[in-house]
Amino acid sequence: MPERSCQAVQHWLARQGAATSHGALPTPDLVAHAATCPACRGLLMTTAVTFLNASAPPASIVCSECEHDLDAFIDWEERYDLAAAAQRYPQIWWHVLNCGACAEVYAGVHALLRAEATGKLMAMPLPQLYPVLQLPRTYLHAALAPQLALGVGWGADDAQQIAEATLGSFQFALAAYPNNDTTVTLMVQLDPPAPGAIELRLDPLFVRVPLAADGTAFVRDVPAAMLTARAGADLCLDLELDEPFE
Amino acid sequence: MAAEKLLLRWSEVIAERDATEGWRLTAQQRERYATELAAIGSPDLALPTLRQIALNYHRDQRIVTALRNPQSPEYSVRWERWIDQVQSILQHQGLNWSTDVAVDIEDLTQIALLALQRALAGYAYRSKFSVWTYSVVVQTIWRYFRDSRRLRRAVRPESLDHLTALDPDLGGITADDVEEYAQTRALYAQIQGVLAAQPDRRLRYIFHLAYIEDRRLIDIGEHVQLPPAQVRTLLRQARRVLNGDPTIQAWQHAAGRCEFGCCVEKIHA
After folding, report:
1. Which residue from B134, B155, B135 is spatially nearest to B144, judged by alpha carbons?
2. Cβ of A100 and B179 within 8 Å?
3. CA B31: distance to chain centroid?
């Protein structure tokens, strides 16, 4: 049943003292009523002045301006609370209190966020990043420097296995191939293959490489000196998967 | 000079966030973060907002970059995944149907996806990407329905006008503003909830076909493979259920009518 009466507006206003929960703005029905009711508008203005500790309600904006910042307003509200969002984006707060159309969008976005949080709406298809390996420089130095210095000992296929790791049901291997005296190609192998990418951090280097269909990714022309230096930040390898793994 | 100052400011914010959040960015990453965020602009924003943007950028830049770059091998794969996501959003919002037979969920999905694609260039990490996406989709579809009504195209709001025209006793429902539209949608959700709780699952579906899609009994019968007489019986049963439901009764008392015309018998009785 729609909340359309002045009483509903008054109830909502009375709750504002403790209104810090998500979606605490009035329903679109109530906003629509207040927009056409002089008494409720007066009450809202008084509340706005008190709520924002200002001398007057925020200046009016049009819907397109509200649309531009509505997501930032909601995000701020999600991160902190409604009061903080109203302080940071007073014009958006005031507009949503006075515009049925924008109040509808506001309510819709909140409904989706709640649905996502409770698993009623499938999660956004955002890539997931998983830390897989973190290797100190001292380890890299010990593993690679002697071979690079001698130019031998890279194994049957010229590859030097550096490290292996397990992530859920995935096996992860990192190996190095010398290109010449000064550069190395790093190879990552994911088994079984999965769509995604790897991110390699070896300060100051940062590389992101998509995984091929066979689960391999190559980071080419890495300076050998960077891998064999005794000091420096750790080598970090993260796996970016398109689907979260079990 | 201003650009350099902006870049410096972003570098400071990124370095601070990196240390606070433990991102362990490399120098190359920090430089890229600062350069890309400086390109977005926002020189006048307060520090808390800049920090929030930096957090959003760190979390969402992978997907945003992939969706923005048509040259990327991941581009089409990523967008394909969003088709299901957008459909899911529309369904959850109850914005997945239209009485215009020429407009279905696929069309609405395409409208929303196109809007997302266009708006993506302007996404400035001021909110989480998910919040921004929800906002764009909901705004786009609502705007589409409003614009359609203004253009007198036969989509859902016009169908409600049509229902009024079919039964003058319903009394001047114009569906001419968002408030009315919102209420109608809320009532529809209420009705669907009541009917969904019924053991006979056909009630909800047949009600939708009859009162929302405005289909004839004979067409509904063909659709659900029932004789028209049985469809009529089921509709009567649905109306009985609705008229006996306290929430629908409360709605009738408050609004003085049911916008879908399904509870007319009760009101007139």
Report:
1. B155
2. yes
3. 38
Is residue B170 very low, low, confident or very high in pLDDT (cuts 50, 70, 90)? Answer: very low
Nearest to B183 among A29, A71, A75 (CB): A29
By CB atoms closer than 10 A (0-12, 13-18, 19+), residue A196 is buried
Poorest-pLDDT segment among A50-64, A101-115, B246-260? B246-260
Q: Which long-range contacts (CB under 8 A, 24 or more apart) does B210-214 make?
A: B210/B235, B211/B163, B211/B260, B211/B261, B211/B262, B212/B97, B212/B99, B212/B156, B212/B159, B212/B188, B212/B260, B213/B99, B213/B159, B214/B99, B214/B159, B214/B162, B214/B163
Kindly list the distances between the CA atom of residue B43 and the CA atoms of A19, A88, B22, B29, in Å, as whole numbers in the listed order: 32, 16, 25, 21
A19 to A15, A22, A82, A83, B8: CA distances (angstroms): 6, 9, 7, 8, 39
Q: CB distance B88–A88 less than 8 Å?
A: no
Looking at residue B99, what DSSP letter applies?
A: S
Report how far residue B127's alpha carbon sits from residue B132's, in angstroms, rounded to the nearest whole number: 6
Q: What is the DSSP string of A218-237?
A: EEEEEEHHHHH-SSSSPEEE
The token duo for B72 is: 């990327």
Selecting from A4, A74, A205 the residue whose C-beta is nearest the C-beta of B131 gives A74
Instruction: Say whether B129 and A126 touch across the interface (CB within 8 A).
Output: yes
Q: Strands across the sheet with A183-191, in order?
A: A160-167, A170-178, A183-191, A216-223
Which residues in A lie closer than 8 A to residue B254 (C-beta atoms)?
1-2, 4
* Euclidean distance between CA atoms A74 and A95, whole angstroms: 13
Helix (H) or strand (E) holding A76: helix A63-79
**Among residues of chain A, what percentage have pLDDT more than 70?**
89
What is the side-by-side order of every strand in the sheet holding A196-202? Answer: A128-135, A235-241, A196-202, A205-210
Give the length of chain B: 269
